[in-house]
Amino acid sequence: MKTIMTFATATAALALAISAVPAAVLAREAPPAPSAPRPFTLPQMMTYALPNGMQVTLVPYGNVPKVNILAAVWTGNIDDGSNVWLADMTGALMQKGAGGRDASQLAEAAAGMGGSLSLSTGLNLTAATMDVLSEDAPAAIALIADLLERPDFKPDDLEKVRADLTRNLTVAKSSPESISSEAFQQVIYPDHPYGRVFPTPEQLAGYTLDQVKAFHAANFGAARTHFYVVGQFDAAGVRSAIEKAFGGWKAGPAPTSLPAPVNAEPAVRLIDRPGAPQSMVVIGKRIDKPGAEVDFKAASTLLGGYFSSRITRNIREDKGYTYSPHARLSDRVEGASWTEDAAVTAESTGPAITEIYKEIRRMQDEPPTGAEVQGIKNYMNGTFVIGLASRGGMAGSLANLDLLGLGAGYMNAYVGKVSALTATDLQDAVKRELATDRMSVVVVGPLESVRPQLEKVPELAGRLEQPE
């Protein structure tokens, strides 16, 4: 008779077989403990300045005959003033044509070098990037110079860009994530460009080509630009190409400095979405020290910054309130902030907020375990080194650290500083930065059922504003 093995009997048989394996054999099969992290040191760099003030950093890196080129211009939404997204419109128009070539011709030229050309606009940084074959580095440098110095700004392209941005705005304003993010930024960065997240449709409809040209003329220049070349390249040829392409560019003004107040008054803002099955919750505050402080970076990661964090285990794994909570440390030029955000089931909105506060207080009241601290240190050092394993990662990291005024020294010291962290360091960092009575809270959800829950959260009692 044929014997049929069920899942239960198979499992029992497997357990019996494992139990019969000698302990010495199992010990040999166990993975070895991780070794101590190696000190990280940047490759030898060459940094210099052109007579017009443009900074240049050349980094020989890797063995592949390719280079990553990144031109970082210190401008963006910080220079919008009240014209929200004027920087975005300018950047989008620059990509439509430059140096007499339209967008398709720019793309074809970049593809012929084995890469692509892109331009991104952020709060304080507009970045033009290419990753090309080493032999094409001089041509790529010239192409980026056309993009930054000689955009065409054609009237027909303006309307195409306006239509794209209007569509993006409509989509964003329908998303609870975007709505909550905008409201939170308005609370912690009042009357500052960081708090002006979205324009009105009327603003977008009213921007003119003259405004775009004026923005470019006022904010793009050599004095605001740091040019990075990372990879395998002929140093003399690259230097000559940079001088030829950018040596005649006007210096322009220094980067804008517009500090935001550190301790904006905390608030609770409620935004109604009747009938929504979920609430979007954002909790956080400005922090006095930047996220570059590795003690708080580690504490934030353990609290909510990765999949095995405490808040994630609590409100996702244990209680099932949410699918993807996450702590975010935004280290901005004019002021850092920390947030924990989560899309939670509507009926669990109050309990989820209660648990987030509970985890913050728990970390203030008692130091984390040795295993938790070691896990965070391994995670941070590992992701740091992985992030620098590519040419683009290296160029982007250098640009971001230069933007924040940290420089290459921060990168060289990072692994050592993280490795030296103790449980007390993490506890003290949370005490220093995350005072629960200074937290602002934004909730976007069905307030008819959610507001009664919020009234029961001790940290929110008496602070609930009227819903928008």
UniProtKB/TrEMBL annotation:
Record InterPro entries: Metalloenz_LuxS/M16, MPP/UQCRC_Complex, Pept_M16_N, Peptidase_M16_C
Membrane spanning residue stretches: none
Protein's UniProt keywords contain Signal: yes
Peptidase M16 N-terminal domain: residues covered: 92-196
Matching Pfam families: Peptidase_M16, Peptidase_M16_C
Signal peptide start and end residues: 1-23
Ranges of residues in domain Peptidase M16 C-terminal: 208-378
Keywords: Hydrolase, Metalloprotease, Protease, Signal
Similarity comment text for this entry: Belongs to the peptidase M16 family.
Name of this chain's protein: Insulinase family protein
UniProt source species: Novosphingobium mangrovi
